[in-house]
Specification:
Keywords: Glycoprotein, Membrane, Signal, Transmembrane, Transmembrane helix. The protein is mainly α. Helix content is about 75%, strand content about 0%.
Length: about 900
């Protein structure tokens, strides 16, 4: 009774749970799609959205984007170039291998599916042959349980329950996906795929068709945009004329050298003034600081310790320091450096050179640069006068609307093509006038059978799960399979599990075959087409589609090639400019090809011709304000003076390393050539530790002397660096200006030649034709492209077009294809878990068919202990011989 009470709660809740789980798919199976204003399936869609995202990630994993792009480009190359087809047929093995490697994920999964189709029926045949012939597989009734059978039943039962629950989730997802797919294909619902696709294409076509008309109605804005092109184009052409003239005359190189010489002269004057200002500071360090430190050491050595030597110090060090201090004094070879350096610099760089001659030369060079920059302003001034060609061209633009006519024609052509595509799709998708030859009609005829086939597939999987769940319920709640047991026993559970396994062995291969076909169809459409259209492949996917569209147009519609731009990247990419693609309708057209491929308008042709003629007639006035001969007198004088300067003696007297060493200290202190006195001072300070006050005094003197030496050596190093920089500047200045001492200058001669060359008539004419004339046409064309882009983007609602086209893409690729792929993904989850379930179910069948409980045999210790107290019979039976007693174990 207690065991029955423990079993009854389990027997009550497990069937209820099973009924709830089985009710969900059956309810979705029986539900019919009903039209409504609000989408009643929206919560259902949201609930399975994560599963659909996982399915898409799985497809992206087995088929990466780069492989799909390679297949797409390879296919369009073969499709548009017939000569490549023969090459493919001649080397079909290499082609097949390349395509197989591109679809490696699909190939591997297909092979695994075929292996499943072959192995599962064979395994089922083996299992049932053994079951029927020898009676071992599946277990036999009335067999005694072994030790641990209950634990194995619980483990196998729990594992099978978990796997069946996972499989049930997959089947439920398959039922839900089938219902969503049916809703998407129901013509009575507002989210009907064919209706949404045709409606979205119609909205996009209507918006594109209205764009040219809106532009013509807004002719004032178009004229303003076009007229605004003229002056920037003229300014750009004038700058090109100036750059071409400067490059041809060769004036830039000598001017750059003159500016470099000017900078050298200014830097040299600054360095010379710094060199002069730092000599007094160096002398002050020597006389006041360094000399004071040496005097403090002399005073301390006279009054300290025994005989003036600190306690603990070596008397020899004290005597050496006393002898050296009598002759040590600040100074060195650099004492003569100020006089030597100042005498050399006085003839080359007198005081004030930085603010004197250098500033005058800078003003002269700035005036020369300003006169060169004024060439472009002079050209613009000649053209943009009251009766000049610029205002004439602007007036001509404002009086006509024909400048952007090629762009409007291209927009009309694009709108017509989109409208024709919409009409063809509408005629092919939706029946018109009672016609039955349409894709929608064909699908409506096949849809009931298609839906029934999908329901049967999911129902088959559900039937197997029902048998498994019933077997688990009977095995958990039923009693042992005795001959007089009730119907709810473990023997019935074994029969139910065997029935489910047998059904799986017989029909799972058929289910796998159907799932494989659905997987290959839906997965290929998603990865090879819809992934690019929905933007899941990123900008690379849009670029691949644009490449395919360009190749197709080049092969089959060469007259439309100029209009072919980047429609997918521009219109499906949320109207955001990517790279060099303009947003909106302007990005869908190849505007540079359209503008450059048409002849310029008469007003622009006249502007270019008249501009060249006018500049040629007034070329002398263009260069009349040029001043290419800056005043280089002071620069030449400074270079000549630098030629006579010799800074080697000044630099040679400043040969210090700038770091505190024995050799460096000897450079600034006379009387201690080997640095032994300074070293003895350091040893005495380190040894004077007996008296704290004395030790602090010696340490203070050593620290102060080291600081004075480092500061003095640093100043000497800075002075030496300035002298070296002055020497380098002198050498470069002589190289730039010229080394002759007769007052001449190679730099002045080169500037004179450039001045003469830039004023020649042939140079001016060539610069006007090649610089202004050619670049004016280019600038006008580029300006027209920008004007057309601004006009088209202003008259076409890019966001509306993008939303409509994305809606046309979402209808088949998301509303229909995602549930379609979700169906095979749900059943695929069922089939992946099925082989493991078959193993667990057969194990449970063997355990459920055991009739007797586990009992210990007669050889166990308890029985043997009992046998010792209760020996066997001593009285032999009648007519029988006494059996001798066994001894030992």
């Amino acid at each position: 009774p207690s065991k029955q009470k423990a079993i009854l709660p389990t027997a009550s809740w497990l069937p209820c749970l099973l009924g709830i789980l089985l009710y969900l798919p059956s309810n979705s199976l029986c539900a019919k799609p009903m039209p409504s204003k609000e989408d009643s399936a929206a919560p259902l869609k949201k609930s399975v959205e994560p599963f659909y995202q996982l399915t898409e990630q799985f497809l992206d994993f087995i088929q990466p984007v780069d492989k799909s792009i390679g297949l797409l480009e390879d296919g369009i190359r073969v499709f548009t170039n017939h000569s490549v087809i023969a090459e493919y047929y001649s080397d079909w093995q290499t082609t097949t291998h390349r395509h197989t490697m591109s679809m490696l994920g699909y190939a591997i999964l297909t092979c695994l599916g075929l292996l499943f189709i072959i192995i599962v029926p064979l395994a089922g045949c083996c299992v049932f042959c053994c079951r029927c012939c020898c009676g071992k597989c599946g277990g036999r009734l009335h067999h005694m349980e072994r030790k641990g059978a209950r634990c194995r039943r619980n483990c196998y039962g729990t594992s099978l329950t978990v796997l069946c629950t996972v499989m049930l989730c997959g089947v439920v997802l398959a039922f839900i996906s089938n219902q969503l797919f049916r809703n998407a294909m129901d013509p009575k619902r507002p989210d009907y795929v064919f209706l949404q696709a045709t409606k979205s294409l119609g909205l996009a076509a209507a918006e594109l068709s209205a764009a040219p008309d809106r532009a013509r109605n807004d002719s004032g804005r178009v004229r303003t945009l076009t007229a605004a092109v003229v002056r920037p184009a003229v300014a750009g052409a004038a700058r090109k004329f100036r750059d071409h003239l400067i490059a041809r005359s060769g004036v830039r190189a000598p001017l750059d050298e003159a500016e470099a010489a000017n900078r050298l002269l200014a830097d040299s004057g600054r360095l010379a003034d710094e060199l002069r200002r730092n000599w007094p500071a160096l002398r002050d360090d020597l006389d006041r600081h360094l000399n004071g430190s040496l005097n403090d050491a002399r005073q301390l050595l006279r009054g300290g310790g025994v005989g003036g030597c600190p306690i603990g110090a070596d008397p020899n060090d004290c005597q050496l320091l006393r002898d050296r201090l009598t002759v040590m004094k600040p100074g060195g070879d650099f004492d003569a450096a100020p006089a030597q350096c100042n005498s050399q610099l006085s003839s080359w760089l007198p005081v004030g050179t930085e603010s004197g001659s250098a500033s005058r030369l800078s003003r002269s060079l700035s005036e020369t640069e300003a006169s060169l920059a004024g060439l472009a302003d002079a050209a613009i001034g000649q053209l943009d006068t009251a009766d000049g060609p610029v205002k004439e061209a602007i007036a001509a633009v404002n009086s006509t609307d024909q400048l952007l006519e090629p762009v409007w024609k291209a927009a009309e052509g694009l709108a017509v093509r989109v409208s024709s595509v919409h009409s063809d799709l509408a005629a092919g998708l939706v029946p018109d006038g009672g016609r039955t030859r349409s894709l929608e009609y064909l699908f409506l005829q096949v849809a009931p059978y298609w839906h029934l086939a999908l329901v049967l597939m999911a129902s088959l999987a559900l039937t197997i799960l029902v048998l498994y769940y019933l077997g688990l319920a009977f095995g958990c709640c039923g009693e042992a399979p005795y001959d007089d047991a009730r119907c709810c026993n473990r023997g019935a559970a074994a029969y139910l599990l065997m029935a489910g396994s047998g059904l799986a062995f017989m029909l799972a291969w058929l289910l796998m075959l159907a799932v494989m076909l659905l997987f290959l169809a839906g997965g290929a459409v998603d990865t090879e087409l819809c992934r690019f259209l929905t933007g899941r492949a990123g900008p690379a996917g849009y670029r691949a589609l644009d490449t395919v569209a360009s190749a197709y147009t080049r092969r089959y519609q060469p007259d439309r090639m100029r209009e072919n731009g980047a429609p997918f990247q521009a219109l499906l990419g949320d109207c955001r400019p990517v790279g060099d693609v303009r947003p909106g309708l302007a990005g869908a057209l190849n505007l540079p090809e359209l503008v450059n491929g048409t002849k310029p308008d008469r007003a622009f042709r006249r502007l270019s011709t008249r501009s060249v003629q006018l500049l040629n007639s007034r070329r002398d006035s263009l260069v009349g304000g040029l001043r290419l001969r800056p005043n280089l007198t002071e620069l030449i004088r400074q270079a000549g003076a630098a030629r006579t300067v010799d800074l080697s003696a000044c630099a040679g007297s400043l040969t210090t390393s700038g770091s505190l060493t024995a050799a460096a200290s000897a450079d600034v202190i006379r009387g201690d050539p080997d640095g032994a006195g300074i070293a003895a001072l350091h040893r005495i300070s380190a040894a004077a530790v007996a008296d704290l006050a004395e030790h602090q005094a010696w340490s203070r003197i050593v620290d102060q002397l080291d600081a004075d030496l480092i500061r003095t050596l640093g100043r000497l190093s800075d002075q030496r660096r300035r002298v070296q920089q002055l020497s380098d500047a002198r050498t470069r200045l002589i190289d730039l200006v010229g080394p002759d001492g007769r007052g001449g200058s190679r730099l002045a001669d080169r500037l004179g030649v450039a001045d003469s060359s830039i004023r020649r008539s042939d140079a001016l004419s060539e610069a006007i034709d090649a610089g202004a004339g050619a670049n004016l046409t280019v600038g006008l064309s580029a300006g027209l492209v920008d004007a057309a882009a601004a006009a088209l983007s202003g008259v076409a609602d890019c966001r509306k077009i993008s939303d409509a086209l994305n809606g046309a893409v979402r209808a088949p690729c998301q509303s229909a294809l995602r549930p379609f792929n979700g169906f095979w993904a749900g059943l695929g989850l069922f089939l992946v878990c099925l082989p493991t379930c078959l193993v667990f179910s057969l194990k449970l069948v063997n355990l459920y068919r055991k009739s007797s409980k586990y009992e210990r045999d007669f050889e166990e210790p308890d029985y043997m202990a009992y046998q010792g107290f209760c020996p066997s019979d001593t009285v032999p039976l009648d007519g029988r011989r006494k059996v001798p007693r066994r001894t030992g174990v």
